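Reading a protein record of the kind used here takes only a little practice. These numbers are not coordinates but entries in a learned vocabulary of local backbone shapes. Here is one such record, which you should read through line by line.
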Amino acid sequence: MSETVVDGETVELLRQLIRNGCVNDGTDGSERTSAEVLAQVLGGAGLDVEMVESEPGRASLVARIEGSDPDAPSLAYVGHTDVVPASPEGWSHDPFGGDLEAGYVWGRGAVDMLNLTASMVVALRRLAASNFRPRGSISVLAVADEEAGGLKGAGWLLEHYEQLAKADYVITESGGNPSPRGDDVLLPVMVAEKGIAWSRLVVHGTPGHGSRPFRSDNALVKAAEVVQRLAAFRPDAVVTPPWAAFVEGMGLPAALADPARVEETLQGLEDVRLARLADACTHLTISPNVVRGGAKTNIIPDRVELEVDVRTLPGQGGEEVRELLVDALGPLAGDVEISLLQDQAASSSPPGTPLWEAMEEVARTLVPRGRLVPTVLTGGTDARFWRERGGTAYGFGLFSAAIPPAEYEAMFHGRNERIDVASLGLSARLFEDLARRFCG
């Protein structure tokens, strides 16, 4: 790996963003607090900054250095400022304290994704302070609402302020955690992500007195069987080009890219982390995660609601999801009402673009023997909003080897979220150097 770079400016900005506590629980927005901080940082470098709100408090910010050539490709760095809730229980540090200890910044958002947002902002500020004059425009977007699906952040911004937010190329989260392989250091780049088809299942029964449960039509009992059926259901394996490229690039067993052999190979994998990733990247997944029902201890419930996290592969949409859920429920399907809460298609961008080539060149200057590898994200990001409009979007940063990939991944929406200061320096340097190479 490269030598350690301690970037005090990025460290302090990240600590401030964590302390702002812009928690997105799906209700009122609070991202304006961080947008104002970032506007001050960028405005101090002479940049024009625009801030817009989809609703009170739910603010997104755009700062841009205009290019001199309207035909040159534009590049946007897209970070979000909202974070998921965090309870102090189980944390060794205050999740909203932004503590700096032993070379790590601790707090909610330290990896998802305030670390990259801070690095992007510092990179643009330094470009502006150096009087950088690009051929193609370079911008930073600090958007709201990503943690609730982005419809009041990036999606709203592109719908209502397209000229402000559009870009030919976009970099957002996530990628860049190093994996040594032989003489190379492999650097995953998110080129594709699964779709979202969150669903609500309402299980119906017949109310009655809780003291006489024999042969009753208890919706909760049926819901328990529904959950078991959903958990056990196995759709057919599908291998997409991005997943096949990841398997080859990472030197994984070739059987993981063969639809006929994926299932058997998954069962034999001792690496649980790899098994979960491979399963999610080759299957539509169904995870029942929320249950609501019952009115009183002595009343047999006649209605139970389940919320199910369904993640789709390319080409799979709402109608196919509904059919698969009916198949999974079997004889219980007649007692279950299915409705779609979200239907967002899977999206991808090809590797090998001019931006990809520039990313690899810059990465190699910071990570000797670094080599980019396409990867698939099983979650979702704001990248899809630009892909839907014909843009190319990747997820990338640069990270040191201080936090192993498995530990890093576990901190997303988990406890004891933290990032090492060396990674902050690498990402800020990456974004600055990449802008000079690609837009200059």
